[in-house]
Design a protein that fits this description.
By secondary structure, this protein is mainly alpha-helical. The protein is built from 15 helices and no strands. The protein is globular and about 70 Å long.
Length: 442
């Protein structure tokens, strides 16, 4: 090989090295690293709490425990989309947001925690009264406590991520789950077996205790009623369509499960759930996106416009897609083995469903990454339309698919619904980018 012919090869190698260096630099981005580590901790802790509760409580009490946690999580989801999601986007629009703005979000979050706690307690009371005409005030109080603590904790950690204090958010989560472990261990050391209500109160109380210093710092800034109104007015145009999206998506999901259970029976539901449970190993990455991608996308948009936003999301999709798709393949490829080993031999027959779920999860990852594009440019109405269209398609096709293909047909319809919403979102992103380029050229 001559020296002249080796120059292109050398340049190519240098280009590859430069590309790898940029990728590795992004991987070691502090916000991303701390966010992923934090979400891994939260997911692992919640999984461990479920196992501990299942062992300490009877089946009936564990059912009450998990149902109350589901309601508390639902309340937190609505608070996140109304206050936290817009905050994550707006935080990057300026080089520095005032402390009063974040203090206003904190005040609104605390007020929402009270309202959410009362709502969950009321739902629990209604369910109990409809069942046997009685009211369990201890369970209602614990429902309020865990909801209030969960919402307060969620708002605090989102504010920390929005202010690029990822290590602070991780410290808050370590404190919460560490305190929970200490309280439960202390009870067991004195041979006291906690009830479902006690575990709920501890979980809610530790959420409050872990965030006391965070809220003390936030509320040191002055907050006026006028600012609270301004924050609500600014957040709601972004949040309103996201809230509707959640309502539609959750309604569609519950209806699909009801149709599957009513048509094919409990075994089919168990097979579908087993596949979802296994793929839950990817959840911590997808959930971690919310901690840093919205703020990073907003920064990229402010600094580089639509082109900068597109480059940022493409880079994040590439960097985080590698571990996400790797985990999906790791679970899906030996599907028979995982299902048979972890759940029992009778679950191995549901391996094809796990393959369909794997494709669905890959689609969801791509869709969620580009939903942040629409959130950043404040066109969340398109996100709602994407989910409304996909939900309508799922509800129309679910029954014929079940009658034709059985339980795998149900999984395929859910996967198709995710594909429809992904295509719709990508279409909106592409159209907006084209319009921007046309305006720039003009």
């Amino acid at each position: 090989m001559t020296a002249a012919s080796s120059i292109p090869a050398t340049q190519h190698i240098q280009g590859v090295v430069a590309l790898v260096s940029r990728v590795l630099g992004s991987v070691h981005n502090r916000s991303m690293a701390w966010s992923v580590a934090d979400q891994f901790l939260v997911s692992a802790a919640n999984f461990a709490i479920g196992i501990v509760a299942a062992r300490l409580l009877g089946v009936a009490s564990f059912g009450q425990f998990t149902l109350t946690l589901m309601l508390a999580a639902l309340a937190a989801v609505f608070v996140e989309y109304i206050f936290c999601a817009p905050m994550m986007t707006l935080a990057g629009r300026r080089a520095r947001r005032s402390g009063s703005y974040f203090a206003a979000v904190a005040v609104l979050g605390i007020a929402s925690a009270v309202a959410g706690g009362l709502a969950v307690a009321f739902v629990k009371a209604t369910m109990l009264f409809a069942r046997d005409g009685s009211l369990d005030w201890l369970l209602m109080g614990s429902a309020f406590a865990v909801t209030f603590g969960h919402v307060v904790h969620t708002v605090a950690r989102r504010i920390l991520f929005a202010r690029r204090r990822s290590r602070g958010a991780l410290a808050v989560d370590v404190a919460r789950y560490g305190l929970f472990a200490l309280f439960v261990a202390g009870l067991l050391a004195f041979e006291v077996t906690p009830s479902a209500e006690v575990l709920l109160v501890i979980l809610g109380g530790t959420g409050v205790l872990a965030t006391l210093t965070t809220y003390a710092g936030l509320l040191a800034s002055r907050v006026r009623l006028k600012l609270l109104r301004a924050v609500v007015d600014r957040h709601w145009p972004i949040a309103s369509w996201l809230v509707l999206m959640v309502v539609v998506a959750m309604g569609q999901e519950q209806l699909v499960w009801l149709i599957v259970g009513g048509t094919l029976g409990d075994a089919a539901v168990g097979g579908l759930r087993a596949g979802q449970y296994l793929l839950g190993v990817t959840h911590f990455i997808m959930l971690a996106l919310e901690n840093f991608v919205p703020r990073g996308a907003s920064d990229a948009y402010s600094e580089g416009g639509v082109e900068g936003l597109g480059r940022f999301l493409t880079r994040q999709m590439f960097i985080l897609g590698i571990p996400t798709f790797g985990l999906i393949i790791l679970v899906a490829a030996p599907a028979h083995f995982w299902l048979g080993t972890l759940f029992g031999p009778e679950y191995a027959q549901f391996a094809p469903i796990l393959w369909v779920w794997s494709l669905a999860y890959a689609i969801v990852f791509v869709r969620e990454m580009w939903v942040y594009y629409l959130r950043t440019i404040e066109q969340t109405r398109g996100t709602f339309h994407a989910f409304a269209l996909s939900s309508a398609a799922a509800l129309v096709l679910i029954y014929p698919a079940i009658m034709t293909l059985g339980v795998i047909g149900a999984a395929m319809v859910v996967c198709l619904a995710h594909l429809i919403s992904m295509v719709y979102v990508l279409r909106l992103v592409r159209r907006h980018a084209r319009q921007h380029r046309a305006m720039a050229a003009a």
